[in-house]
Write a structure and sequence with these properties.
- The chain is an alpha/beta fold and about 190 residues long.
- Helix 2 links the parallel strand 3 and strand 4.
- It is elongated and about 60 Å long.
- Helices cover about 45% and strands about 15% of the residues.
- Helix 1 runs parallel beside helix 2.
- The mean pLDDT is about 90.
Length: about 190
């Protein structure tokens, strides 16, 4: 309805660009800014594999969420390419529930040596599960917060992926202004 009324719209995050690096000319949005979630999952899996991971799991906070599904799909693709085992685990937005789910999974799968969490709350659960099993385990999450930074500083979390929220907001507004003032539309997606 907004497009029909001539209202310019931006959307975050950007879609995965694995198959279509150029913006679809029929896209109703003037701007799409954000991380390529599939590529982020690939990057995490590559980093795990480079440090020797042979069995990886992706813990999804909200099963069915497209962004998180893309993160896990990217991880799965690289794990398979590298000859590593891969599994997908349904976590929960409640870190305590995720901790129980992941700890039980890790206890029944002692070969798992790398865990990717798809969001902040599930990351806290993964870190708690890691502490519960008390074995070497590579862990990573998404987004940045004081809690996430503290986990990294303590050595409980190896790394996190940040979509750069400031850039997502700023570039979206900038591209809308350029569209309104000059009629410019981005030809590709702005990846943060």
């Amino acid at each position: 309805e907004a497009k029909d009324k001539g209202i310019a719209m931006a959307f975050n995050p950007a879609p995965s660009v694995k198959d279509a690096p150029l913006r679809d000319p029929k896209d109703i949005y003037v701007s799409r800014v954000g991380a390529d979630e599939y590529a982020a999952g690939q990057m995490a899996a590559n980093r795990f594999a480079d440090k020797g991971a042979k069995s990886m799991i992706c813990v999804q906070e909200e099963v069915g969420d497209g962004t998180q599904t893309e993160r896990c799909a990217g991880m799965e693709q690289v794990a398979k390419t590298k000859g590593a085992k891969y599994d997908h685990v349904a976590g929960d937005p409640d870190p305590g529930k995720t901790a129980a789910i992941v700890e039980a999974y890790l206890r029944s799968h002692p070969d798992v040596d790398a865990v990717l969490a798809t969001g902040q709350p599930v990351t806290a659960g993964v870190v708690a599960a890691k502490q519960g099993v008390a074995r070497p385990l590579q862990t990573a999450g998404f987004d940045v917060s004081p809690d996430i930074v503290a986990m990294i500083q303590k050595g409980d979390l190896d790394f996190t992926m940040d979509q750069q929220g400031w850039w997502r907001g700023y570039i979206s507004v900038l591209e809308l202004v350029h569209y309104v003032r000059y009629g410019l539309i981005q030809s590709n997606y702005f990846l943060t």
